[in-house]
Write a structure and sequence with these properties.
Helix 1 crosses helix 3 (about 50-60) and helix 2 (about 35-45) packs across helix 3 (about 50-60). The chain has about 80 residues and is α+β, with helices and mostly antiparallel strands. The protein has three helices and five strands, in the order ββαβααββ. The chain has one domain: Winged helix-like DNA-binding domain superfamily/Winged helix DNA-binding domain (Arc Repressor Mutant, subunit A, Orthogonal Bundle), CATH 1.10.10.10.
Length: about 80
């Protein structure tokens, strides 16, 4: 099951939750490199599972930042670079 839709040109579009997460990462990537799913979830009023599921679309997409799954201690950690 795909977590993103595609436009008529085949370019993936992000869901509302994915857009919120991407906006959060963009707003904070200059001050921080590593993000835990559970902390993103707390700030965006989501569950850590929702964040993890939706981060895959951001990780696989082509955006102005790079997202890589980094670690799993106490919550999945994502490395985000601009």
């Amino acid at each position: 099951m795909s977590t993103t839709a595609e436009t008529a040109t085949g370019v993936p579009t992000l869901s509302e939750k994915q857009q919120r997460i991407l906006g959060y990462l963009r707003d904070n990537a200059d001050e921080q490199t590593y993000f835990k799913s559970r902390l993103i979830a707390e700030d965006l009023d989501m569950s850590a599972k929702e964040v993890g599921t939706n981060m895959k679309a951001i990780e696989q997409g082509e955006f102005d930042l790079s997202v890589e799954k980094w670690g799993y201690s106490s919550s999945t950690t994502w490395m985000v670079t601009t």
